[in-house]
Amino acid sequence: MWLPNCPLGRVAPKYMPLGRRGDEMSTLASTTFVPRRALLVLAVLPLLPACDGHGAHTGFQSIDVTGADWGRDFRLFDAEGRAVTLADFRGRCVMLFFGFTQCPDVCPTALARAADVMQRLGPLAQRLQVIFVTVDPERDTAAVLGEYPRAFHPSFIGLRADLATTEATAREFKVFYRKVPTGSSYTMDHTTTSYVFDPRGRLRLAVRHEQDAAGVAADIERLLKDNP
Ligand SMILES: [Cu+2]
Questions:
Q1: How many Å lie between the centroid of ligand 1 and the Cα of residue 228?
Q2: How far away, in angstroms, is 127 Cα from ligand 1 center?
Q3: Same-domain check for residues 96 and 208
Q4: Are residues 83 and 190 in the same domain?
């Protein structure tokens, strides 16, 4: 069941192909523009506590998911093949985003916003690690992931894993993705939410794709100041 007021992720029905009307997506009421090619599908996310209004009074502009029993950790590999887990970033906030480097719009937009957040944080930006996790490890090789996130900010890193681990990690974070054939090639549909962990490694915020950089920066600044 979909709760139309859940701010976490929405699709605009008018951008859905006619053939899909009648499935669960067509019930989504929204004014948010998300191109079909980068469609977010967040069928599991109405389970989030914020969707019942819980997040409204926490003072964060992002959705407060503190205490979630999911999104606890990951074990993925960086461009040099080293295993990376959340514990590697203790003392810093982590902003985690799932996508793929050939994404035409959603991923570049999310990473550009993350770079904007870094700038807005000033010196505090040293305490934020932005991580891009590929949902397309077949094309996003270690070499590709060594380059792509850095094009947005030199501190950003890309992580990957084999297909099974990618799937398990996405499931842990309630992230949906799937291949969509495009003639001889394919693109990916994927969830557009970014997640923020506090410096103690606790999942705290789900950041909507539509949220602006100023709001994200304010939320992260608060998490950093609460955890000096
Ligand atoms: Cu994308």
A1: 33
A2: 25
A3: yes
A4: yes
